[in-house]
Design goal:
It is built from seven helices and seven strands; from the N terminus they run βαααββααβαβαββ. The protein is an alpha+beta fold. The protein has one domain (9-208): Aminopeptidase.
């Protein structure tokens, strides 16, 4: 229970949550902080790291919510290779039409350049890591600052891991911004380990889908 007496709950994603997911993605995209105005179009980050997932696999999207207000989410796909093929066929053409070229620089130092984000939206092959046979699923998770440190990150990941395990998926992976030291500490406590494809600037972490780990994330 939070100080105001309300109790956020984890539930399945609903189509009505879409706009709030996009907003949370943007508000947490700058090393965990607000990326509003970093790019010429605030839709870029959500259209690469959040919205394709709820379009493709809404059954693997879960939110922390107080009623209709969403405070955090985890999204994932069970088969990254199949997701890449769907992305190229169904998502990339519309993304390219909406974002044909990088906009004018905003003057803020981005995590990615706008050109890199546009490339990520049109060339999903970046997700085909060497360890896909062992770790076929991948995820993204974001929580608003007001919800962090209360165990909801752990609970969201455990919820997704259980859903993946129920589908027979053996393991899940994620990519991490090396500058986000707090996030790396969280994943280490949760039991994620570095994969062979991990690099100092682009850590790649994996974990089995079965089982849970105790952590106050």
């Amino acid at each position: 229970m939070r100080e105001d007496g309300r109790v956020p709950e984890i539930r399945q994603y609903r189509a009505a949550d879409r706009e709030q997911l996009a907003r949370i993605c943007l508000l947490t995209a700058a090393v965990g902080g607000d990326a509003t105005g970093v790019y010429s179009d605030d839709a870029l980050m959500p259209e690469v790291f959040a919205l394709p997932y709820v379009e493709y696999a809404p059954e693997l999207a879960f939110v922390v919510a107080e009623g209709d207000r969403v405070l955090g989410y985890v999204v994932g796909v069970a088969d990254t290779a199949a997701f890449v093929e769907w992305w190229k066929r169904e998502w990339a053409p519309g993304f390219a039409a909406r974002h044909p070229s990088p906009g004018a620089p905003t003057g803020r130092a981005p995590l990615f350049t706008e050109a890199q984000l546009i490339e990520a939206g049109t060339a999903p092959e970046r997700m085909l890591i060497d360890e896909l046979a062992e770790y076929p699923a991948h995820l993204h998770i974001d929580l608003l600052p007001e919800l962090q440190g209360q165990g909801f990150g752990r609970r969201l990941i455990d919820t997704l891991r259980a859903a993946l395990a129920a589908q027979g998926v053996p393991a899940v992976h994620l990519g991490l911004d090396a500058a986000n030291i707090r996030a790396r500490s969280f994943y280490d406590r949760l039991g994620f380990h570095e994969l062979p494809s991990s690099r100092p600037r682009t850590p790649m972490l994996g974990i089995a889908t079965s089982g849970t780990a105790g952590v106050n994330g």
